TrEMBL record:
Gene3D superfamilies: Vaccinia Virus protein VP39 (3.40.50.150). GO terms for molecular function: N-methyltransferase activity. The gene is LOC118282524. This is Histamine N-methyltransferase. Monomer. GO terms for biological process: methylation. Transmembrane segments: none annotated. The keyword Transferase applies. Keywords: Methyltransferase, S-adenosyl-L-methionine, Signal, Transferase. InterPro entries: HHMT-like, SAM-dependent_MTases_sf.
Length: 372
């Protein structure tokens, strides 16, 4: 949409004609959705290329959007360049995968035990949600926390760079005021790195009992440093929850094979729990992990010209019109990889892609492992 303002000055006129000079200034604004997508990924002031993802963002939006750099040169274009197609491909991903169900199952069955162990009996708990999106998952976590600590009040720090997503979150909170009267919300419209810088400038001494980083480490430049900082904020008995695609998933195999062609070098777009575990192991940091089984039906991807198959291929590769623009060699290699037993299984005539998620739970760093 463009808004134009014109000013005209008539410099000469007679009974028969008039000569005027006009100057027009036009300001064109991109769609609110596209700006929200870009903000969700890159933070404030970055409307050059999500989540209206996460979900990055419906509840579970991956939002693994791409900046095309280096290896991803022309003619390959990022899927995010076409908002309409991205939305269609993401919606199809949700329909074809069990990611939503596996996340809900984790929140209901495994998360309560993790939450029960935090706080050490305190009457007030501090929670930080990093990359909270529209808050759907956050509110479910707070509900489970309430059941495990029924008498406690909660200070909930929300870290989310998208103003659009924060607006959705705040609307949800306003609709549940009575249920959430024990929670004080602090809204931080910023990226994880901005939150870290702000925290250090303020020399904040507050410590957190529970921090969750769900499907967001794809968007930081240094996942290890980001984890180090947030882990350093944990109080005694505090827990840091990380959820990403599993290193054992088809994503892990695809990225391992075609990282240079498909992944951005500006952020950690192709990071998996396998990468995080290796990083933690190298530092001698202990953790607990869980695998969340999930599948995605990608059968249509192998039917040439199938509209839904091409949408799924775009989502898997994050390349706009991948089947039409990728080189024959790259397309053949990716298709072979997707059908490889490490990526997918075939049953009853369907090709089911391994869409597993991984969960990593960290405790407070011991003093000898503390990283500034």
């Amino acid at each position: 949409m463009c808004v134009c303002v014109c000013v005209c000055v008539c410099v000469r006129e007679s009974e028969c004609y008039r000569v005027c000079v006009c100057v027009c200034v036009c300001v064109c604004a991109e769609s609110v959705l596209q700006c929200a997508l870009r903000l969700a990924r890159y933070g404030r002031g970055a409307c050059s290329p999500l989540d209206c993802r996460r979900q990055k963002h419906t509840v579970l939006r991956r939002g693994r959007t791409n900046v095309i750099t280096g290896a991803m040169a022309s003619p390959l274009r990022s899927l995010i360049e076409d908002d309409s197609r991205y939305q269609k491909s993401f919606q199809l991903f949700l329909e074809r995968s069990s990611e939503h169900q596996c996340m809900q199952e984790f929140i209901r069955s495994r998360l309560p035990d993790i939450l029960a162990s935090v706080g050490g009996g305190k009457s007030h708990l501090n929670v930080i949600g990093v990359g909270s999106g529209a808050g759907d998952i956050d509110l479910q976590i707070l509900s489970e926390l309430r059941m495990k600590h029924p008498g406690a009040t909660v200070d909930n720090e929300v870290v989310e760079p998208s103003g659009q997503q924060l607006l959705h979150y705040r609307v949800s909170v306003s609709q549940k005021q009575k249920e959430l009267d024990y929670v004080k919300f602090t809204w931080n419209k910023m990226t994880a790195s901005e939150f870290e810088a702000n925290w250090k400038v303020k020399r904040t001494t507050k410590r957190a009992d529970f921090i969750h980083m769900i499907q967001m480490l794809y968007y930081v430049k240094d996942p290890g440093a980001t984890i180090d900082f947030f882990q350093s904020l944990l109080d005694e008995n505090g827990k840091l929850l990380i959820i990403l695609v599993s290193g054992e998933s088809g994503w892990g195999k695809l990225w391992q094979t075609y990282k240079d062609q498909l992944c951005s070098k500006e952020i950690s777009q192709c990071v998996t729990t396998g990468d995080i575990k290796s990083l933690l192991d190298s530092k001698g940091v202990s953790y607990r992990s869980h695998e969340l089984p999930s599948q995605m039906d990608i059968t249509e991807c192998f039917t040439e010209g199938d509209e839904k198959g091409e949408l799924l291929l775009d989502f898997l590769t994050e390349v706009l019109d991948f089947s039409k623009t990728a080189s024959p060699e790259l397309k053949a290699g990716v298709m072979e990889c997707l059908r490889h037993p490490r990526c997918s299984v075939e049953a009853n005539g369907r090709v089911m892609f391994n869409n597993n998620l991984g969960v990593i739970v960290l405790d407070k760093l011991s003093s000898k492992l503390f990283i500034g």
